[in-house]
Design a protein that fits this description.
Elements lengths: L2 E4 L5 H12 L3 E6 L12 E4 L8 H11 L4 E3 L3 H12 L6 E2 L4 H27 L10 H11 L8 H10 L7 E5 L5 H12 L5 E4 L4 H4 L6 H9 L2 H12 L7 E4 L3 H4 L8 E4 L3 E4 L4 E6 L5 H11 L3 E9 L9 H12 L4 E7 L2 E6 L9
Parallel strand pairs: 1-2, 1-4, 2-3, 4-5, 6-7, 6-11, 7-8, 11-12
Antiparallel strand pairs: 9-10, 12-14, 13-14
Helix pairs in contact: 4-5, 4-6, 12-13
Length: 366
């Protein structure tokens, strides 16, 4: 069994490494040069090591390696990492460094973020057109959004994210309603954009339970995955992801959409102990449909909410192109057919169907 020294033992990167390491059966030993370090409680074994600047560091490290049969070191601290690299190169310790130099990792990560953001900026410009160019999010804003939203579980492609963000510079004022929020990645992105453009408030609607989430028309593997999800914890994760925006920007209803609509309307409020009280306009600027993908549910979400989308607003059918079923596509195609005289723009991007409304009345059923 691989036994890895984590040095220093405390910190966010180390916490993430512990989760991954334990899932693959890797035994960990934590260490630091802090007496009574609170991080010691997170490890099966712990050793105190002097500072890397002290002569006693090397003999203490050798003793720890021998005593605990350590074969590898994970070190997300740049100065300590360089000291360990030198000791290994000089043959003074016989372990391997698992990670590259942290400074190099961070530089590569930032370069990758900026590289990812560049085509997204171009796509947003293509969607919004020159008339909105001055209001489009900058290259750095997109990179920042990617940096933070990557920490939230989600399956939105960069193209889908860019297309969603491209809607906001031209949206009419109103609420942003998301049906199906999961861990909150797209809710996070839309909450940022709604705040950035003073569009309105975000309402996330999701029952966060397997009974409503399981998609019976999908393959068995998809249904099994839904049943294995820890939905109460996912709901907690959503709250963690969105709580910093505050009730002036976002709130949620833990109900199926047909029940949630009963609590939505002009001047109506949503009050949650964990988020606070939010008053909504009762008119929808952007409707993002991403709930249960069975056709019956996708059509019901559409029929329940799309009639409240105001002229100039958008309806987005997520997973319009989906390898596990065609429910969203059928619901989206029916919407296009029934309202072809009231739609002034429609396109597919990042597997989602984006539809902008121009008229005052909608036929939401087939």
């Amino acid at each position: 069994m691989t036994r890895t020294l984590v040095l220093p033992g405390g910190g966010g990167e180390q916490a993430r490494y512990r989760v991954d390491a334990r899932s693959r059966g890797e035994s960990l030993v934590g260490a630091s040069s802090i007496n009574r370090d609170p991080a010691a409680a997170d490890y099966e074994s712990w050793v105190y090591l002097p500072s890397v600047h002290e002569d006693s560091f090397l003999p203490a490290l050798r003793d720890a390696i021998s005593t605990h049969d350590i074969t590898a070191v994970y070190c997300p601290h740049n100065i300590i990492h360089e000291r360990l690299r030198q000791l290994i190169a000089d043959g003074l310790i016989t372990v391997r460094l698992i990670n590259h130099a942290p400074a190099e990792i961070e530089a590569d990560r930032m370069t990758a973020l900026l590289d990812r953001a560049a085509p997204m900026v171009r796509l947003i410009a293509d969607i919004t057109g020159p008339e909105q160019a001055a209001r489009n999010p900058s290259h750095y804003e997109i990179a920042s959004l990617l940096m933070f939203s990557d920490a939230i579980v989600g399956q939105s492609s960069d193209e889908k994210i860019a297309a969603l963000l491209a809607l906001f510079p031209g949206l009419p004022a109103g609420d942003i309603v998301e049906i199906g929020a999961f861990w909150g990645q797209s809710s996070f992105l839309m909450a940022w954009a709604a705040s950035r453009y003073a569009t309105g408030k975000v309402l996330a609607v999701d029952p966060w339970n397997p009974g409503d989430a399981v998609q019976t028309s999908s393959p068995e593997l998809v249904q099994r995955d839904t049943g294995l999800q820890r939905w109460d914890l996912i709901h907690e994760g959503f709250k963690v992801a969105l709580a910093l925006f505050g009730p002036d920007c976002v709130n949620f209803l833990r109900h199926p959409s047909v029940r949630a609509i009963e609590q939505y309307g002009p001047g109506r409020t949503v009050d949650n102990p964990s988020f606070g009280r939010t008053e909504y306009a009762g008119r929808i600027s952007l409707l993002h449909i991403d709930g249960n993908h069975d056709y019956e549910y996708a059509a019901l979400d559409r029929d329940t909410w799309a009639g409240l989308v105001q002229p100039g607003g958008w309806v987005v059918f997520d997973d319009y192109v989906w390898p596990h079923g065609n429910g969203p596509q059928r619901a989206g195609d029916e919407f296009l057919d029934a309202n072809n005289q009231r739609i002034d723009r429609a396109f597919v991007c990042g597997k989602a169907l984006f539809v902008r409304l121009s008229g005052h009345e909608l036929d939401i059923r087939e």
